[in-house]
Write a structure and sequence with these properties.
alpha/beta; Rossmann fold; seven-stranded antiparallel beta sheet; elongated
């Protein structure tokens, strides 16, 4: 809407700008003009935007835009344009499963035909082919991916972080750039009285409360504050030291006006009348007729505090035996001093940013606030200011090439509009960054949607921002973001170990199903054996590996490269080598056992060795440096190990079960050898594979 006439209207635009301080709008009867000139944020101008709140004043306005043409509507259109591409992990998993599935089907057909043609037993050939197919298909991959992401989301929920899209949990660990909004993310999104200036010097609030002059200054400021106000600076004044006015309602109010941006209230006291005035320093200086050295020093103090990102108001009072004149400009107010406000930095932010930067994660602040405020908050938080502050107006003036060059170093951005936030996120992504974006306003929603990891505030965030985000900080705790990055790195490392384990253990399973047929030995593995093995492999890879904690050095290493595959050539070669070690050891065991024992006893020995090698390799592959043998995180593995060995003992000891599986308990020396070969092969496989560098 366009304000046609008004008695200064004050508007809370934080939903669109993220800024805690309301702005002033002034009526104008001029033509509508160019829609592009309707900038959100900043004082002045006649425009009222959909989604904002009137906190003071009244006026008459004309509707000029509705629906998608409003500032709020343009945000909605930008959200609708953003898609949700598959993550690198999802693409890798799909490719692995596709290749493994094709190999399984191909080998199944080849083995069935080969077995049937050479031995004239097509039923046994079909079973052998089916066994090999079951052994080759890594059906654990999608299951592991789902379990890891779900349990990761649960762990984040315990830290009061809600995961809306589980795939983003893995992406957290690869974050290279953290783009943060200032208001409500780095700061608390509230005003706090930060400093006073009186008697020619600046004072801290805590120490000044013991001084009579400072108390007079604060009392006058409270008298000039609206009762039951929504203005954050009024609330901050009333909160400090529990100050309040008990004299009922003011008998007269002079609200903000274009010609006098100061708020004045007149009160009745037992011995006369008192008025308080606060507002823009220039307006209060005029009310007081201030000049000379006092005005110069007050103006210098105002500029100094504004340069530190503080909001500064001047305060004056008036006392008399009769009511104040109709126009307070001629009453002769007494200048008392300046009050300065800040949106305080969250206590956990500096420490969290140091941890993130120590992990090689660059941090950028993108805000709609003024450059001086942005610079001050960035300095307090520890964000790099060496390349200066880049404003929205400067971004508009830069060519795309020049902007990309500036983005290599600049990490603080001020007076940024919603569409520019989105453009900055996309530009950083074009530089190869994995971007995590935080925000709480409607203006942040397009950027949250476009970033690989969108993070919204749960308490102060808008519904639109929460809907667009991947993660929601339920306690608005910035430190939870770093916890999420630690968890993401842990999940990535454990997922890689689990996939190496799955691939490695399928090599001996497939080899033991195929090699005896090619050599001419009796079949070693049948479908029942493979099914039993899968009942061990599935919980091991899904639970034992997921429970492994993050390494102590997880946040002292740089982020992985965005193009680095979760399971690339190096991991495949390492897994194949580890699996080959186990395969060779068990084939030698099976061949030697066949020479000195019956087929069922040899099969029992080889199968025992395979189970033990499986468990030994899983135990070693899921190990984290410094982790104790009986550490709590090891509990899932030991439970699975106990159940697996109990079932194995049952199969070997109970004749009916042994007959079902086609194996018999081997003689004690052979059983001991099988246990020794299985444990040794599992441990040796890990040593011969490049596990420590996976």
């Amino acid at each position: 809407m366009r304000l046609v006439s008004s008695l200064v209207v004050t508007v809370d635009e934080s939903l669109l700008t993220g800024e805690a301080v309301p702005v002033t709008r002034i009526g104008s009867k001029a033509a509508v003009g160019d829609p592009s000139a309707r900038a959100v944020g900043g004082d002045g101008g006649p425009w009222l935007f959909a989604g904002t709140l009137i906190v003071a004043g009244h006026g008459l306005a004309e509707v000029v835009d509705t629906g998608p043409r409003t500032a709020l509507g343009r945000v909605g259109e930008a959200l609708g344009e953003e898609g949700e591409p598959p993550t690198n992990l999802q693409r890798t998993t799909r490719r692995l499963i596709g290749v493994a599935g094709l190999l399984a089907v191909g080998f199944c057909v080849v083995v069935a035909v080969l077995y049937g043609a050479t031995r004239q037993d097509w039923l046994e050939g079909a079973l052998a082919g089916l066994t090999l197919a079951i052994a080759l298909i890594p059906e654990e991959f999608p299951m592991v991916l789902t379990v890891f992401m779900a349990l990761g989301a649960r762990r984040l929920a315990q830290k009061r972080v809600l995961v809306r899209r589980t795939a983003v949990v893995e992406a957290l660990g690869g974050t290279t750039l953290l783009c943060v909004d200032k208001t409500g993310t780095l700061t608390e999104n509230r005003m706090r009285l930060a400093a006073l200036w009186l008697d020619g010097r600046r004072r801290d609030v805590e120490g000044a409360l013991q001084d009579r002059a400072a108390c007079a200054l604060l009392e006058a400021a409270v008298r000039a504050s609206a009762q039951r106000s929504n203005d954050p600076m009024d609330r901050a004044l009333c909160e400090v030291a529990g100050l309040g006015i008990d004299a009922g309602e003011p008998i007269r109010v002079w609200p903000l006006a274009p010609e006098r941006p100061a708020y004045i209230q007149l009160w009745r006291e037992s011995d006369g009348f008192v008025a308080g005035a606060k507002g823009a320093p220039e307006a209060v200086f005029s009310l007081c007729g201030l000049g000379g050295d006092i005005k110069r020093r007050a103006a210098e103090a105002q500029e100094q505090m504004a340069g530190q990102g503080l909001r500064v108001l001047a305060v004056a009072d008036w006392r008399g035996s009769s009511p104040l004149a109709a126009e307070p400009d001629v009453a002769g107010f007494r200048f008392l001093g300046l009050v300065a406000f800040e949106d305080p930095l969250r206590s956990e932010v500096p420490g969290a940013l140091r941890v993130a930067q120590g992990a090689g994660i660059s941090v950028a602040m993108i805000t709609g606030d003024y450059p001086a405020t942005a610079r001050a908050i960035a300095g307090q938080a520890g964000i790099d200011l060496s390349a200066g502050v880049l404003t929205g107006a400067e971004i508009d003036a830069l060519s795309p090439e020049a902007l990309r060059e500036r983005l290599r170093k600049v990490r603080v951005f001020a007076r940024i509009r919603a569409e520019q936030k989105l453009a900055l996120v996309e530009a950083f992504q074009a530089h190869g960054h994995v971007v995590a974006m935080t925000g709480d306003g409607v203006n942040d929603a397009p950027a949250l949607e476009a970033a690989q990891i969108g993070i919204a505030m749960g308490k102060r965030g808008s519904d639109v921002a929460r809907e667009a985000a991947d993660l929601i900080l339920l306690d608005d705790s910035f430190g939870a973001i770093v916890d999420g990055v630690v968890l993401g790195r842990r999940i990535y490392a454990n997922l890689r170990r689990a996939m190496v384990y799955i691939t490695a253990i399928h090599v001996p399973i497939a080899g033991l199903a195929l090699a005896p047929l090619l050599i001419g030995w009796p079949p070693l593995l049948m479908p029942m054996h493979v099914v039993l093995l899968e009942l061990v492999i599935d919980p091991v890879c899904a639970l034992a590996f997921e429970a492994a904690p993050a390494e102590a050095s997880a946040m002292k290493q740089p982020p992985r490269k965005p193009t680095e595959p979760l399971f690339g050539r190096r991991q495949i070669v390492g897994a194949a080598l580890a699996g080959a070690v186990i395969l060779v050891a068990l084939l030698l065991l099976y061949g030697g056992a066949s020479a000195v024992a019956s087929t069922d006893e040899a099969r029992g020995a080889a199968f025992t060795g395979l189970i033990v090698a499986n468990l030994a390799f899983a135990f070693a592959a899921s190990a984290v440096p410094g982790l104790g043998l009986l550490d709590r995180s090891r509990r899932p593995f030991w439970i699975i190990c106990a159940l697996a060995l109990a079932v194995l003992c049952g199969v070997l000891a109970v004749p009916a079960w042994g007959e079902l599986f086609g194996l018999t308990l081997p003689p004690p020396p052979l059983l001991a050898l099988a246990l020794l070969v299985g444990a040794g092969a599992g441990g040796m496989a890990l040593r011969l594979s490049p596990h420590d560098r996976l």
